[in-house]
Amino acid sequence: MAVYPIGMVRTSQRSPIGDAMVWAARIMAVGLVMFLPAVAGTWLDGRFGTTFLGISGLAVGFAAGLGWLVQFGRRRPS
User: What is the pTM for the complete model shown?
Assistant: First the structure.
């Protein structure tokens, strides 16, 4: 039987390792959502000779990742 700090109630049916894996996957996904649009924009800048697509990709990726993080924060534990 696991011992939890005062006030912390376990609501999940998964093991603690399973919960950790779920959160690790979420964090990796948010990181990729933030990072990949900037990489794609930089690649397109090099391909087309522009200078704004990398910055645009960075802004779009940051906004998408931040929106996803807000959604995670609003969810109720199931």
Answer: 0.72
